[in-house]
Every structure is written in C-alpha cells, then in structure tokens.
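Z., the sequence and structure:
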Amino acid sequence: MATTKEIKSRINSVKDTQKITNAMYLIASTKLRKAKAELDSSRPYFNAIQGEIKRIFRTSENVDSKYFYPVTGEHELPGSYGYLVITADKGLAGAYNQNVIKEAMRLMQEHPDPKLFVVGEYGRHYFTSHNIPIEKSFLYTAQNPTIHRARVIAELLLDLFNRSELSKIFVIYTDMKGAIESQAVSSRLLPFHRAQFIVPDSHEKQVKVPFEFDPSMEVVLDNIVPSYVAGFIYSALIDSFCSEQNSRMNAMDAANRNAQKLLDELSVQYNHIRQSAITQEITEVSSGAAAMRKKSKGGMPL
C-alpha cells in the first residue's frame, strides 16, 4: 500500500496536470471565438460572389465554363484527382486528426491516380511515415488560417486544374455542425455541378430582364470562380480550425473531469491511510500509557 507521502505527491502531480488542461481549454475557447468572428466578417463577400454566379445561371443555364461539369451531364472525368487534406499541427484534440486521415484514405482508394495536397503538420507526418507521396505540402501552420493563405492554395489548385493535370479536386476537412458535433467530410471543389446554382432561391428575385455581361457571360463567370474557390477553401480552413479547437476543448474538459475524479479518489485514499496512521498512533500511545500505569501500580509497596 502506498504511503501518505507518495499519495500526496501523486495528488500534487494530478493538480499540476489539471492546471495545464484547464489552461489549454481556455486558450482553445478563445481561438474558437476569434476564428468564428473572422469567418463571419468575410462571409458576406463570398455570399455575394455566390449570388452573382447564381444570377448568371438564372440568366442562362447552359453557359459553358471549364469550372463546371459539361452540359451533357457526364461526371466521370479522366485524369488525376486532387485531394486537399486539412489536418491540425498537433494532437490533444480527441479523434479530430484521425477522422480526417481515415476519410482521406477512404476517398483516395476509390481512384487509381490520386494527388495529395496537405495542410497541417499532423497530416504531413502521417502520410510521410506511411510512404504515401505528397504532391504539395503547404508548410505554413494550420493554426492561423487567413484569406491570403487560402488564395495561395486556390491559385495552385486552379493552375493544375486549368492545365488539365487535375480533372477533379476534393477538399477533405472537418465540418463543425454544432457546439458538440463535428464530422470529417469530403467535398468536391472542382468542377462544380450546375445544380448547385440553378436551384431556385425563394429569397432572390427572379430575373425578368436579362442582364448584360461584358465582354461575355463566360469570361465573367471564369473570373468570378477563382474568388469563389478561394472563399470555399478559406471556409474549409476556418471550419477545420474551429472543429480542432472545439475537439480540444472537449478533450481537455474530459481530462479535467477525469483529473477531478482521480483527485477525489486519491483524497479518500489519503484520508483513509492518514486516519489509519492516527488511529494506530493513538492505540500505541494508549497501550503504552496503560502499560506504564500497570507497571507503576505493580512497583508500589504493599
């Protein structure tokens, strides 16, 4: 059985760990609020771009663009598929990274010629250690997603798509569906499906008089799409970052609860051993006093 000194040392160790997990919880919650605020501030701009693309398709559903599936409807396109995988730079976030890796591996196995693009140190380390070739690794941290970095990623992917080196591009990231639930998802980035923009929106007015596009509808669409792609990637980066912080908050909260439970158990064990030691000391003192009295009585003259 452990001594009171050993148990007390263990209690102090658990308390020190609890201070760290509690600090990480507070840091993650602050980062989460900041990232959400940044996404909300940029969302109106990209919503406006999406609205303009919808306006074009409301004017002409058969407009031709290299960024959309052909009007004829074929979806199986020959060539390499690109996969942008967004992970974190570190662990301590529950199953956040593992779920993204699992979804990426599942999707890449469905196509014989995948090309991998990775954001996040965790993903880079995993694919490198498993000898899975990485086409491009974005070395900047995943901890600070910005619109500039999203544009850099978008420019590279669009360049490969425009040169027909990639026929499809997928983004694999974690979507935070609520305060508790988050899910690793894969979304096709390019080419777009026309149905995404042709579906009627009750909040938008129907086009009665055709708009004029200069120099042409196709040129305008091809110039809008890169900004929309950058916005999509930025949203995926922010969603992944928020999901990471949310997962870390949940993991640290669980660690705090487990630490408190362990502290309660150790405190009970410490008090039990301490009480046993006190009881033993009292018993020894009482026994010694009784023996002294007995000896004293035995030595008195009759």
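The chain has a mean pLDDT of 79. The two ends are 50 Å apart (CA to CA).

Let me know what you think.
H.
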